[in-house]
Amino acid sequence: MADQPNTIDQSKPSIARVYDYLLGGKDNYLVDQQVGDRFKNDLPGSVAIAQTNRQALIRAVRDMSAAGMRQFIDFGSGLPTADNVHQVAERHAPGSRVVYVDIDPIVLAHARALLATNNSTTVIQADLRDPKRIQDDPEVARLIDFSQPVGIVFSAILHHLNDEENPAEVVRYWTDQLVPGSLVYISHFRSGHNAETEAAERTLQDTFGRGRWRDDNEIRELFGDLEILEPGITYCAAWRPDVRDAATGETARRPTVWEQLIVSGLARKN
């Protein structure tokens, strides 16, 4: 596959920059804001998809660190924001090593500036669909030791691969590289088979030509033979929440219809 261009095209929206805008970031352009405003204004409440996904990622990295992960690869990492994977990992396990992977050149530029003095974290510009090239990158070889457990993160990225791009094969490639005890975290758009799902999916497809909401069985299949850990695959807003009802042990509130459109799960290789 040809090298990805390093120039930043401000005339076309970027998935990473739209996500940054929805999270309240500043690293985006008017064209990204226009797409984000379609979610904010035309699909009120849909911004919760991005927000609850981010919070679930923070909890996932916390728990992966607690389970012994000291090295991570974050695919489709997006633009740096508060509580990035390396910040959460280092907070719970100082010395953790992190490789960020994203195709967007603006992610590369901003992340390199952020990580200029951090020798245990790096970012590479690469296509998720070319895993061998990612594995062969010198920066991956420098920081990731595949003879030891690795935490793999696919946060809100696999749904940007259409079916013919075989997202399950992408996951399987990496799980094949892992030793037992490694952990894989996936969050993914979940089809609610409702008007909200159809509207959100149509917005992404019209804008980027990609974006695939999958049902529960399709998302489960992405994990392959991995052992899915408690509480299974569930709404990001309800996945290992920090706040539970003292009497029932359940989440303090039921996720909104929009929050039900993104789920997450953590799995272990045995």
Describe it for me?
The structure is a single chain. This protein is an alpha/beta fold. The chain has a single domain (15-269), classed as Rossmann fold, CATH 3.40.50. The chain has helices at residues 15-22, 30-42, 47-66, 85-92, 105-114, 131-136, 138-143, 167-177, 195-208, 216-222; strands at 71-75, 97-102, 121-125, 151-155, 183-189, 227-228, 234-235, 262-268. Helix 1 (15-22) crosses helix 2 and helix 3 runs parallel beside helix 4.
CATH architecture: 3-Layer(aba) Sandwich
Low-confidence stretches: 1-5
Oligomer: single chain
Strand content: 5-15%
Give the proportion of residues in helices.
Answer: 25-40%
Fourth-tier CATH superfamily name: Vaccinia Virus protein VP39
How many alpha or pi helices?
A: 10
CA-based shape:
globular
Report the biggest beta sheet as strand number plus sense, adding barrel if it closes: 8 strands, mixed
CATH fold type? Rossmann fold
Q: Which CATH first-tier class would you pick?
A: Alpha Beta
Return the domain count: 1
> Mind telling me the C-alpha Rg?
18 Å
Strand element count: 8
Distance between the termini: 33 Å
Protein structure class: alpha/beta
What is the mean predicted local confidence, pLDDT?
A: 88
State the order of secondary-structure elements, H for helix, E for strand: HHHEHEHEHHEHEHHEEE
Keywords: Methyltransferase, Transferase
InterPro entries: SAM-dependent_MTases_sf, SAM_dep_MeTrfase_SAV2177_type
Organism: Nocardia arthritidis
Protein name: SAM-dependent methyltransferase
